[in-house]
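Most newcomers find our protein records easier to grasp once they have seen one. To make this concrete, we reproduce a full record directly below:

===
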Amino acid sequence: MAQTNQQESVWTVDSSPSLQSVTLANLRKLPQIENFSEEQIFEMEVVGNVLPFKANNYVIEQLIDWDNVPGDSMFNLTFPQKNMLKTEHYDMMASVLKNDPDRKQIQEMANKIRLELNPHPAGQMELNVPMLKDGTKLFGMQHKYKETTLFFPSQGQTCHAYCSFCFRWPQFVGMDEMKFAMKEGDDLAQYVREHPEISDILFTGGDPMIMKASLFATYIDKILDANLPNLKTIRIGTKALSYWPYKFTSDSDSEETLETFRRIKSKGIHVALMGHFNHLTELKTDSVKLAIEKVRETGVQIRTQSPLLTNINDDADMWAQMWQKQVELGCIPYYMFVVRDTGAQHYFGVSLVKAHEIFQQAIQKVSGLARTVRGPSMSATPGKVQVDGVAEINGTKVIVLRMLQGRNPEWVNRPFFAKYDENAIWLDDLKPAFEDKFFFEDELKQIKEQKMKNMNS
């Protein structure tokens, strides 16, 4: 792989570059790494053997400012950093790597550490796996909220490059028992048919846009051919716009991908591309601008989302600029998330109080068209919980919360209060302000018990 200044001609808006991936296997061959010390490279290898690492030539040559490394946000977003592992976990893996281990020894230690990182937060494995009426468990799907079911196509369980914070990291580390994946779309169509309350299917992963267009179309055609009267929207969660925009512009199957979008639209089904943009830098290249234009020309709506991340985007001015740029390009700002309670949460996490301050400062600087964004929001076990701010009630300082989504739809939009805690970074860190328990706790316990009973039956 060549240095950026030698590759400028490759990255013109009319170019058709070929994807080149970088993993631990070829990290040391990367020219940009030549100036790193042996200690720095070893640190990346320690972390990268536990949390998945993958980058590509577009990210490396177009998005990372190598003159600003290690402080560059895009570098921190995609390359392993020592403190992403807690000290005890780092030392455990480092001690193995220093003793000339075989692959099995590395894998055993990695898996031991991974199981301590809460690989499936918010009850994903226990509470969200749906079943057909005949009792078949659909481990390639999740159904947490009434109207929306998530679908994990087996060919979409990787990405063009990995975000180092991603809560889907268990999909990428080779531990099959921690994966969600389904090879066939027939069960998906059957489940949606059996559940008329479902209006939305969310294709997720990994990244479904890593699939060849022909494979993606196979899944889509099964859904369209089923003629599901309750299906109103197909959502596609993807980082392809920001990590490999050529998927929609110049890849050999880019036109077929766009044609699949058009075919869905022709059936009267809305298509929402859930674009993951974590930093303003990802919106600056001519290639991403063209990709957004191509997608929007098919009638697909692009909604944007990202978690708030220490060391990457914990800056109100950057968020304001990013939202305004997204609106300028025709996208709809959708969510600012709180970092999930898994993986390297300790490294990326922002306190809930600070998260709301950043959100409030940012949203004050944008026009009304960008104020479609919601957040900061935690995708927690009971549902999506938004931090609405800090208030004082009868002399008591509290954090004001609101349920944006809930396992019980009756919880939606219900406000509640937690004791003020400037260090809390997740719902589980909070205590109820005026009662012994939060309003949803008793019912949530019942839901868990019933789900576990169904899973074990």
